[in-house]
Fold these 2 entries.
Entry 1:
Amino acid sequence: MSDIIKEEELVKELKEKFGAVIENASITRKTRVWIDVNSDKALEVMRFLKTKGYYHLSTITGFDEGEKLGAIYHITDHKTLVNIKLRTSKTNPVLKSVLEVYPVATSYERELEDLFGIKIEGLPEGRNYPLPEGFPKGVHPLRKEVKLEELNKMLDEKCAKEE
Amino acid sequence: MSKIQIPLGPQHPALKEPENFMLVLDGEQIVDATVNLGYNHRGVEKAAENRNYIQDIYLIERICGICSHSHVSCYINAVEEIAKAEVPQRAKAIRTLVAELERVHSHLLWLGVAAFELGYDTLFMYTWRDREQVLDCLEMISGNRVHYGINTIGGVRRDITKEQAEEILKKIKFLHERTSYYVGVVTEEPTFLARTQNVGKLPKDVALELNAVGPTARASGVDIDVRRDEPYFIYDQLDFKVITHNTEDVFGRAVVRVLETIESYKMIEQILKNLPEGPISVKVPWKIGPGEAVFRYEAPRGEDIHYVKANGTEYPERVKVRAPTLANFQSIPYCLKNGYLADAIITIAAIDPCMSCTDRAVVYDYKTGKKEVFDWEGLRKYSIEFYKKKGVSFK
Amino acid sequence: MDTIMPLLYIAVFPGFVFLGAYATLIQWIDRKVTAVMQNRVGPPIYQPIADFIKLISKEVVIPDNADEILFKSIPYIALASIITTIFMIPVWGTPMVSFEGDIVVIVYLLTIPTVTFFLAGWSSTSPYSTIGSMRVMTQLFGYEVPLFLSFAGCAIIAQSWSVYKISEYFTQNPLMILVNIPGFIVALLASQGKLERVPFDTPHAKNEIVGGQFTEYSGRLLGIFLLAIDIEMVVLAALINAVFLGGLHNISGFFGFAIFIIKTLVVCLILTLFKVLMARVRVDQMVKFSWKYLVPVAVIQILIDLYIRLKF
């Protein structure tokens, strides 16, 4: 495959520089690079990518794999999209904030806190986003153990109580 | 004079959707601004996990009333990538056509809204009247004015006939003339210039730092466009320019949008003149995956990004949506600071936050309990008759 | 008889009833013409009256923090001061009151509504209306000077400070009307500012500060305010007609009145045209525009008038 030279070079360069920090690097198609990163070193990888021109943090996707929670950072230079996967344990989910590298991450990280309950270290205190202020504490709707029916029932009961 | 804090929203005449801006004013000048979002959270991502892939098309289409096709196309491309479906060329061409018509309708709508925020009601009325033409085109193709529902996994649901193509070309020609006139209005009308030039400045380096997307970024001289940088559909076969502007202000954003509309007309003509023959869809199994894909799409407002993870069942494991407006909202506090209160609204409107509109109305007759569904013509006729009875005649 | 006639003047013609009816008609024409130019249908002819009746019949809500007496009395002061001016402007034959210097009185009386708008916003204490009233005052410094200067030009050329005498002079020397065209345009633009209409409608720009100085007003009080603004438009059109266009051309009786109606309608249509053609400017841009363009033009107009006065 000759049309993914750039992507292959990027993966090679990352592996040389960071070694075992980069796991499971794969290129699914042209312009799509997926890498799993040990979450302690993630900021350094991102800082390196930013110097390479990957300045645009498109979004952060949270996910729930059962035992592990995680987040995918979609970073692009508008030609190639690098998807960095970080994982953290479900019992004590903590990720470091990437604000110092990507200052736009505030609302995306707040989403992780609200919807997945991942504690973001270094994220300044702020208003709930996107959940409303009166949303039950400790319920993180995008986690797999929260079932839609139970969630709806709980919210209905809460509304009825408030009335 | 002491500082005043003014709330802009969640309910405000100038905002089409609930969002809140707290502006701290010193006289007329804004010294600080904060953006509060989340009033519109509907839990679409959770809902998407509990529906199958086909149902999700219609759910995701309803994320936004303006760029409904953008969201669906973005989602569907990700799903097709996981399912490894080869979409026929004709289906891709029709998707591109709808996407460009949608861009035209969205940009004309924006021009009207921007003019309205500037108190320029005449331009508002004119652009919205002309926008009806493109909505008619969309209704002709898909049967709907806003939520087209043209996409399905593996292709499109409706074909375009020769007559339809000719009709669209005719309407596009008319719109091209009208839009050329608006280019004149936007670039020459003195009060419009006075209100937009040097307003809501977003320098190029800040736009890069704050990851602005779409026309907002392009007006600051950032040359990005997913259609060119990472072609999807049939954009690699089309001849179009990416419009950028270097004034870095609201004026630049207006010019970029109006000129982009003209580029869209050219693209629509190219698509309709070289419409590939063949089937319009392929069969894709219900159960998809496992796998994951992320897709970037140039919506009228900028880069739209969807992430889909499949686990081999008919329900997606995770769907993530990032609409362009959220990316652009990061730059609003910067643009607002040190500006005037009078410019706050146009600065906010210049990134084109979303709003919805609707076509068909269901009328419930209380006496008979009968439901009557009007189509557009019927509704038009009904309203004309209704006002005739009240003594207002339409020519 | 001596007491009844003036009362009739005040209450019916050319006072409250006539002005109210004519103002609603002008408002309808303004709205209809705007609608037609914007490709819309526009309201039926009774719409302004219907709006007024609706407002009159609605509940009046007074904010807790507002000064109740001030808040309630302001609309009436605005209305009264505007109606008073009409007695010095020729509508049917000679005006009721006419004396040397009445143009100064008129300009002062027309300033009172602006001050009441300011007080209205200030006394309602909401942030939107506070900003609205600040803008009212800022804008006042923009248009008031050019408006008065443009009137002064006519007064100089007619060698009189009485509205009726100025109109008499222009009737006798119709060519002099042409000399004052720049001043006429200045007066039109300045009155657009006075009436707070697009492009100078910043004090109550709905997209920015909701209802501006009138945000907290409702029901009857708002109705009176809106009626006062409509009447102000008629009065300004009548004043511009009398000062710049030769008034009724010394024709008394019905034909003079017909001329009054036609000419004020034309002035109002020009004002409507301004409204349709432009976007709203910012308040600082408005003040800048006034002092950069309107005031110099008005001053040059006065110099030309002085030159003509001394030469001929």
Entry 2:
Amino acid sequence: MPGIIRSIAVGLFAFAALTPPGTSAEVTLSGFLQQNTAFNTVTENPDGRHYKWLEERAQLKLDATGGAWRVLLKGEVAYDHLGRQDESELREGYVDYAARNWDLRAGRQVITWGLGDLVFVNDVFPKDHEALFAGRPLEYLKRGVDAVKLGVYPGLASFELVVAPTFRESRTPDPNRFWLFDPLPAVTNRTTVKPEQGDAGLRVYRDIAGYDAAMYLYRGFHRTPSMRPDSMLAPTKITYFYPKLFIYGASLSGRAGGGVLNLEAAFYDSRQDRSGSDFTVPNSQTRVLVGYQIQPVEDLSLNFQYYAERMHAYDSYRGALPAGFPAEKRVNHYFTARATQLLQHQTLRLSVYASYNASNGDYFVTPELRYSFTDHLWGAVGANFFGGKPWGQFGQLSQNDNVYLQLRHEF
Amino acid sequence: MKRWWIWIVAGLLPLQALALSGEEAMKKSQAAFLYPGKDFKARVVMKLINKDGQERLRELTMLRKNAGEPGGDQKYFMYFFQPADVKDMTFMIHKYPARDDDRWLFVPAINMVKRIAAQDKRSSFVGSDFTYEDVSGRDIEDDNHIIEREEKVGNRDCYVVKSTPKGTDADFGHKVTWVDKANFLPLKEEQYDKRGNRYKLFTADEVTDIKAFPTAIKRTMKNLQTGHRTEVAYIKTDYDLGIEDSLFSERYLRQPPRKWID
């Protein structure tokens, strides 16, 4: 809490100092109060509690603009009933400077690349998978990165360069709250080693014949950790680490046959183990996404996606995998569908998202009903259902089905 | 005296020139209502009012730029102030009269720009009683237009134009528009369903000149079947501001420039 207040104070001071005299600054303050609860529907948590999430949260957002400068600070304080102490955070806090053909954003910021709906091909930025599975509002899916983003717009194309001096990982579900697959449950001595370097990404985009085309480059690390035991025969310690990763990708989006067609692909170059002979490091991969979105009738939209991941050094991977460890398929095919219906002058929204992995039978289904009681108060009720193989991405979560409530008053 | 017929023809000429076709009237009306100026900016306050009188507010800045002549391509940029859960959202439309629009939405919560499917120009604009077509125009060529009569709306002389869709896929039967004879603004419009029942009523409630362009700064669309209505006020309306083409881009969708959205 004091950290956030200090950040806001520093931001205000910086803004006041940077605004040239004579320019009028425009300052807006807004925020919300929120209640968020997720009940288990299958079984209690590993720590014995009945809730996946139970918290009250307040956000204060300060947005100040003067001339070419802008400061945005979004701080949150939260009270978690399940015992976490560190839920207050600076969600975003940055300074913008905009010139005619370029702009700069420095500070903690949320960045989203690519076209996928809960499928990530070129969106290399940190996520909060726990938030998604614990029924928190959608914005918590993304974590901010502490970075400098430079945008250059020479006309030929637009360039966006993101440089982060420190690496920020994705948040994975907490094993105290979520039942997760663990190949070595007896080993309790565990440590995490984060990369000491930062990471960098470049996106280049422009219009090509009415289509939005983009190219992506990333040089950094996997956002979710890999685990390495100190010994395969008698492991006593597990080290979590973030393997080195380069990504080369592209995307295309445009109108086709009355809907919107999204195409995206990327090559994941697993730099720490290009031969694929280290089973603890993810294999190099090709990822492909095809999405199609239509609006068949008023206020109903449908989005279908096909997504595939293909391992490059599959034979080496299988050769190196110790006995007893579950084997991944060479190719994983996913199908996802989302239907969203708006009703009552778009104040009531019914939506359902489903993802199915045709290679191993994994699935994730999340229906939601959201209603705006007034222009300042909305509530949502929804659920997360998981199933499939006990070690699959969603199958391992099958004991974690939950029903969630979100209530937010915005001011 | 042999040329007496010339005088008769000459006497008829002004009448010929004045006899406007229904299509011409609607073209001029669209030019006056949706295309005035090279560009346009307004703060739009929409009140969505249900039959019990409960109100919801939608507030946005709307910017428009014409690519060329009235009836041609247009670009729209919208920035939302209210309701609170869509604050900072931006929305861009590239409108092409003869084909589907391109639409992009910026979702600030996850900082994502996405294209959205836009097959149906007749769908509701932000939940209001106005459709996208009501906001940005329906293709003149989609309907047959006939001037049925002339009539006053208030103290203004109007053409009364009946427009009937040429195809069978339209979701309405026909509409009747009262077009001001002097400035060609639509002052009133009734939409009828396929069974011939009147179901929507548009009225231009206040018209004022801004930079010599007559502008309906207050307007209402009422759904006569549900009793729901939407009242719209244009404040800070202005024309010919020199809005650059570059505004209508992903860069500014993500970071809308304050000078255009205040």
